[in-house]
Amino acid sequence: MNTNFYKINEVTQHKYYQVPKELYINARYKTTTSNDAKILYALLLERMELSRANNWVDSDGTIFLIFKREDLDDMLGICTTTVWRAIKQLKEVGLIAEKRQGLNKPNLIYIGKIDYSVPEQPENSDENSDNSSDSKAIPTDIEKLNVRTFNNSTSGVLNDKCQDFEKVNTNKTDINNPNNNSTDFNETESKKYKAEQKNSSFVNSS
Fold first, then answer.
1. Tens of pLDDT along 6-25?
2. pTM of the model
3. Alpha helix positions (H), 31-78
4. Is 109:98 a contact under the CB 8 Å cutoff?
């Protein structure tokens, strides 16, 4: 077990590759660049100080780096394909640019500054408006069921009715209403019975 830990009065003497925090919080870089690309950018920033010391600059004072691909592979410990992919991502977001020298010489690499502004959102990126338009264009399952039910009920063929429609009609009758205990049929029978009783009484009295 390692017991060589830092004490409160000790100061670290390490050299660091500084990865800008903006690469992880700014939407312009957060999801468009991989961790390999972010580390590569930090490595190139550190290497830029060597270019400054060697006076590797253009006529306008712009600093450039001379870095072979195989050297990047070795320093990052990743394969060449991953390095090419990371370089491509950094180019797409404007963090580096390259100039060919030709004659099998390595490209000159220029370091772009981080853009700290927040990227603008597209004007038609309102998800709510998209959802509302989709809901109007595409009927829901309930609307589809109502359309099918209406078409089946007006076809003129009783046997072709949708099963759900028949249940709806059955549930709307007065038979299921507990308040309607006296039907028209019972009232008619009661009137007939009273009339027969009245006639019987009239015959007996005569």
1. 888 887 788 888 999 999 99
2. 0.56
3. 35-54, 69-76
4. yes
